[in-house]
Structures are given as structure tokens and as C-alpha cells.
Amino acid sequence: NQVFDTQFSIFTHQETRQQTIRTLVYSVPATLKEHIELVHPTIAFPVLTQDASSFRVTPFNPTTVSPLVTNLNLISNAVPTSCNTVVTPACLQALYGLPASVPQQNVNQIDVGGFNNQFAQSADLKSFLSLLRTDINSNTNFSFVSVDGGTNHQSPAQAGIIANLGVQYTIGVAGGVPTTFVSVGTAGGISGVFAAVETFLLSNALPNVTTGFIGINEADIPQSIAIAICSVFMQFGARGVSIIVASGDGGLSICNFGWSNHGD
């Protein structure tokens, strides 16, 4: 309170009853103002993120996707008709012109982020590879890194839809590239993103590719937070790290969450 000339208090979300410590205004010394763009967490409250409980099933309508697959057949790889209903690693290889052979790039590394108590299951990965990538050793596994107290429970009851999806399709497409699952602790949402990137920006061993960042409705965060997140992503890029962020489940035009950037 004294450092920021403010009064931090406990706030309770009316619907979720989740409590968080925040303030409504803060100050920094005048001599430091030009060197500080943002202090977080202070005035930015946690926002609802796209976790497993947010998923809902949308009835499949093949007429909405058949023209898309027809157009994509113009590429050299033939797209299986089954990709109209289920997207497998083979579908991604065909749609994006990826090589079908297992890459052998042991010097590279891919990180997959896990937020909001999302855990990646080794047993599920084994089943996934046995079913959909029989050319990859089903005992292929991922490394684990904990950030801010993150864990990776292996109980089937704690399997994470998003975390499993990220790890399985990463290894399913790039099976010969070492993959690390990075579990971020209790700090969810924006704080979790900052905790993850802050940890790795201070590291000398950065991955070549990182993915798995959570989706947050942009209309729910202040511009200063959005700029700060973009800035740390640019720092990753400046050090040679490629960042892959999902456009939303269902793609750009069919977002299963029904969220837009206009708050409706």
C-alpha cells in the first residue's frame, strides 16, 4: 500500500464467489513513471477464460465445410473425406501440406502451456498415438516443467481437455521433436500468462516453438494489459521463438464459445 500509495482490498466475484486482492487506483514515484508502463496485478481483475467447463458441442453440418475441403484439395496432398467429421494428425498433414514422415529434430524443442489446472495425461497420449499415429512409438512422452507451483496430475478424473489436445496434436504432428508440457500454477488468466513468459524470458534455454496459451476475451482486458502481453510475445520473437496461438475452437468463423471482440 505504501509503495503504490493505495489501499489493496479483497474483492469477491458475485457469480463465481472467487476472491482476489486488487485496488482501484495506484501511483508510482515520479522519477520512475517514464520507465514503468504497467504494474500487474493491481487494477486489472481476473477475467473468465476458456477452460474445459466452457466447451459445448455444436451439431455437425457437413454442408458448411464441404466447400472448404473441396478448395483445399487443390494442394498436392489429398484430403481424406473423413476430415469433414474428425480432424486427425493425418488431416492436418494433408490440409497444410506437412510431411507424413516423423521428423528427427532432437536439437529443437516445442513447449505446450497448461493453464487453469489443465493437466496432460501420458496414458491418454499413448492411446492417441496407438490409434492415430501408428508410425510413432506409442511410448513417446513429453517432459514436464513447473511454473509458479504448477503440477501435472495423472489421475483420469483430472485429465484436461485443452492440455491433452495441445500435447497430443503437437506430438502427433511433430513426433520426432522433443515436447515439454509447461504447467502454470494457481495464477490463472492474465496472471498465468505473465508468470509463464516471465519465467522463460529469464531463461537461457528457450524453446523453438511455444503454444497452448489460453484464450481471453479481448474486450474484457484493459488496453495496457493487451499491449503488455503483445510486448512480451514480441520479446519471445526477438529471441527466435515462434508462438502459435489458437484462433478459437471451430476456427475463425465458427467459434464454439460464442464470444466476439465486441463484448457480446
TrEMBL record:
InterPro entries: Peptidase_S8/S53_dom_sf (IPR036852), S53_propep (IPR015366), Sedolisin_dom (IPR030400), Tripeptidyl-peptidase_I (IPR050819). Its cofactor is Ca(2+). It comes from the Eukaryota. GO terms for molecular function: metal ion binding; serine-type endopeptidase activity; tripeptidyl-peptidase activity. GO terms for cellular component: extracellular region. Residues 86-264 form the Peptidase S53 domain. Pfam families: Pro-kuma_activ. One of its GO terms (biological process) is proteolysis. It is found in: Secreted, Extracellular space. Keywords: Calcium, Hydrolase, Metal-binding, Protease, Serine protease, Zymogen. Its main location: secreted. This is Unplaced genomic scaffold SPHSTscaffold_168, whole genome shotgun sequence.
